[in-house]
Amino acid sequence: MEESYDVVIVGAGAAGIGMALKLQHIPALSYVVLEPGDIGESFRRWPRQTHFLTPSFHSNPYGLADLNAISELSSPAIFCGSQHPPGNQYADYLAFIAETAMLPIEQHCPVNHVDRCKPAGFKLQTERGEVKTKFLIWATGEYQFPDLAPFPGADSCIHYATVNDWTDYDAETFIVIGGYESGVDASVNLVQQGHHVRLLVKKHSWESENLYDPSLSLSPHSRDRLNEALKTQRLDIHFGANISHVDQGEDSAFRVHAEDGRQWHVNHPPILATGFVAGGGAQQISELWEWDENGKLQLSEADESTRTPGLFLVGPQVKQGTQQYCFIYKFRQRFTQLASLIALCLSLDDSDLHAESAPWGPFGNSECCEDCEC
Ligand SMILES: Cc1cc2nc3c(=O)[nH]c(=O)nc-3n(C[C@H](O)[C@H](O)[C@H](O)COP(=O)(O)OP(=O)(O)OC[C@H]3O[C@@H](n4cnc5c(N)ncnc54)[C@H](O)[C@@H]3O)c2cc1C
Q: Which of 90, 122, 94 has its CA nearest to residue 9?
């Protein structure tokens, strides 16, 4: 690892690897990706039974990139041989793309602290010493930053993001709190293992007024799975359940209390599927961002911190206006403009970045593999 770079990307998940692929198009730019675990570490930590909900399909030769791809010409559907790959296979896809592109990545190198330098730039404390950079791209995601305290008593529950394998848990009945993707995924997986599940949800995320917005509405894939689970009659859904707290009775059963006075009792610790801390991994350097009164991180139109020039955010926490870039096919659209901006600031040539227009499709991704007959 060098002592200083033009750009450091922190995090080698989908956002960090996708961003690095774009930086590679800028000749003479020095950059590195720093990652505390392995490439795709968050995907490797998904529960073993969890699969992608957005479908992967090799539509690339017809001008539409695979929805889950982080490079235009690759396809997780082809690499994983699956329309809904599990987390570990997707992590292997990321590692394969990074290796093929020979991206400069330092694995097992956490960034523990960041200081601003005067007049510009950053000094990063890593497990392998100090690194300086002119620009810092924060790509630490949210999965490794679960909100473990959404209400009193939550510490006695098991958060979805800490589950490795649903077969590690055994009980006749489970309670799952939270009615969006992870709550439905937990419930379906537990029902598939033969358990009974009570799913407690505030409101339908599958019959909401926001059916067109996948950040707010349950994906069709999860709806199909939910319908199958309901057919077993081992899944009960309780709506309007705004949970106020969890405690334990004298019989040591867990009591889940809703604001409207309802109570549910269960012997096994309830499963929390209530989300992640606001800002996710950006909280690690919270003082370098501006936060509004609702705890939302503020960004310029270029995804730059409104408090710290030269610091950028990529990934699912990026929000511009009403658009939340929470899925890979959404946030990958921001990479080119950020790479281009950095090239401009450093007076470097970015023409290679724009060699193809609208590369993610439709009809922009027409290049195909050599000798391909598709
Ligand atoms: C159950 C589930 C299903 C999902 N299904 C889909 C789907 O079907 N389609 C879709 O598009 N999205 C899906 N998502 C969302 C998707 O997983 C995330 O949007 C995506 O992982 C975000 O990528 P990322 O690179 O920003 O974050 P991550 O993949 O979490 O990567 C962040 C990286 O940063 C590293 N890091 C953290 N802190 C530091 C530090 N201090 N120093 C260095 N590195 C650090 C982490 O180790 C990690 O490798 C799903 C999420 C979940 C939980």
A: 122
